[in-house]
Fold this protein.
Amino acid sequence: MHNVIEEIGKGSIIQHGKHNDRIYLMKLSRLDTGMILEKLSKLAYENNYSKIFCKIPKNTAPLFFAEGYILEAYIPQFYNKQDDVFFVSKFLNPDRLLNIDKTQLSRLNQLLINTPQEKKNFKKIAPGYQVRRLGKSDVEQITDIYREVFASYPFPIHDPGYIIKTMDENFQYFGAEKEGKLAALASSEIDIEKKNAEMTDFATHLAHHGNNLSCKLLEALEKEMKKQGISTLFTIARLNSIPMNKTFLRFNYHYSGTLINNTNIAGKIESMNVYYKHI
């Protein structure tokens, strides 16, 4: 089951489909503020989706709250280091809201209390690895790793055509390789106009676990984003992936909320944590 990304109204972008069983309002055009809620409700009703998830400017949030949306996370000074972004959701099936793994939430709480926000011991990459920016000649290796690591994903990262398309648009990929073969990778989805970027799509081949490659990739991405004038970085990390949550906390990212049963990743719908950092 594939999700569809499409434009609605006068420039708003949504993703929707049965794979995630939700609508994701990825970008709200200012021109659509007055009509977007009705359009989202109609689409959700027609497809029997159980969740509507929206990334919106803070000043539009009261309209969503009045229609039963709840705040799940936020990032201050997200747009041009000035305006905040809110992640708001409406649960159309109460089971999706209520069925959350309390054990995982407890582990997150302990992680937030106990993880030191420092990068020491992560400077050295394991012998034999090199980090570099990836290009179109690397696409086959990129998709091979994504197929190995993720049984499912909210976007079609297993498809070489999709990876090439993202490279042509607003994604930049970095990889760690050993003996000429890709071992791990990550990407940044960049909004140049609004000066923010999502650190995303981290994946390490099973044979290369334990070498702190995610830390080195994040370090490389951050340096590149700073060079390009990006001021706010964020990520949406799996609640049940303790290593990735720990990586962002050690790099001084701030936890700002959990998106409940939000994303179909690694074969099932999982809850996700939002982290951010200003640079």
Remarks:
- The helical segments are 36-47, 61-65, 94-98, 102-114, 139-149, 160-168, 213-227, 242-250.
